[in-house]
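ok so I'm stuck.
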Amino acid sequence: MASRAAFAAGAGLVHAIAPLETIGHLVEAEPDLQTMVQDFDAPPSAALLELVEKSDALAVGPGLGRGPGRRAFVSALIQVARRVVIDADGLIAFAGAEDELRALAEARPVVLTPHPGEFRNLFPSFASNRELDPWSAATGAARSSVTTLLLKGVPTVIASSSGAVLTIAAGNPGLATGGSGDVLTGLVSTGLAQGLEPLHAAAVGAQALGGAADLAARRTTVRSVRPMDVVAALPDLWREWDTLRQGGPPPAPPLLLELARPQTL
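replied:
not stuck anymore, here's the structure
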């Protein structure tokens, strides 16, 4: 799903890294993908490290699994990456290792995309405040980890280590379907690869996910929305955004007489 979303967001070349038994299914499902075999229980191969080093952005976590050694595996990839989005099992791998995550994020832009459960595991000191004040919780975690943090929820809150905070209210309950977060990962990582600042890449990705989900819900109903429906709606969302960007300001209504504003005390 992350790879499909990356293609739909305009990524020119998408590589999927997975164990041998998974690669065959990926090739059948997405023949446009570039693939590389890598056992997640083994250290990254030299070929994989070279690929990550040359890539514009790395998305790590979806489909990774939670076997032993995942943190060392992910850390080795991040150390050679230019820009990184960490999601799903990639976040779980750093539970209890915030210092190691911070050291990696100090050398390159890193975007974290946790849902509430992942946020609680990764940042237990900020978790108690998430429901009451997700803005301060996200800001504290972003500053502590020196990352850009996209805290999924209603609304979605995006905070950077500099203190900037954005709120995204787009979307509907259909995004609670499993796989929606993988679509978000593909969108955000493509934004990073295309040169957006981490805060903006996260915001555009979250807004696009929500907007496409709203378009998909009009076709299938909120109850029936699947992540594939959201990906399929992205082209129409891009057209809608292009129309809004190219259009001029709406015409003002004709005024025969404009009264002076009343004075107030």
